[in-house]
Design a protein that fits this description.
0% strand; 137 residues; mainly alpha; globular; single chain
Length: 137
């Protein structure tokens, strides 16, 4: 059991590094008797076992997650990861152009409607952050 706690702690470090403290605190605050085991599961496995692997690094994983979220049409998660990619540590932060390239690639492999929606969502975030002028679509 102490190993599971250790995995949770290591996962939480990765989760906070990638998503930021504010987002993680908000997620943890929503934890309850019904979903608490799920929060523990994703912290141990997604954030420790996967995001903790050294071969790809956070920047590559960010690109992969954005692509996967578009493919799955998991737009709430896509939005969360776009925000995290723009606000993350400098070494793993994505630029608007890198996010655009992910969406363009997804247009071919995941479909134009999925990419169209992803562009709209990412554009809203970029405008909100002052990274895309208001008059641009």
């Amino acid at each position: 059991m102490s190993n599971a706690k250790s995995d949770n702690e290591k996962g939480m470090v990765n989760r906070r590094r990638v998503l930021g403290d504010a987002w993680v605190d908000k997620s943890i605050a929503k934890s309850n008797a019904f979903n608490g085991e799920f929060q523990d599961l994703i912290t141990r496995y997604a954030w420790n076992e996967i995001w903790g692997r050294p071969a790809l690094g956070d920047k590559t994983r960010r690109l992969m997650v954005l692509s996967t979220m578009i493919a799955l049409k998991a737009y709430e998660e896509f939005v969360m990861h776009v925000r995290a990619a723009l606000d993350g540590p400098p070494e793993s932060r994505l630029t608007p152009d890198e996010i655009k390239e992910v969406i363009l690639q997804a247009a071919i492999y995941c479909g134009v409607p999925a990419a169209n929606h992803a562009f709209a969502l990412a554009g809203e975030i970029l405008r909100e952050k002052g990274l895309l002028p208001e008059g641009q679509a």
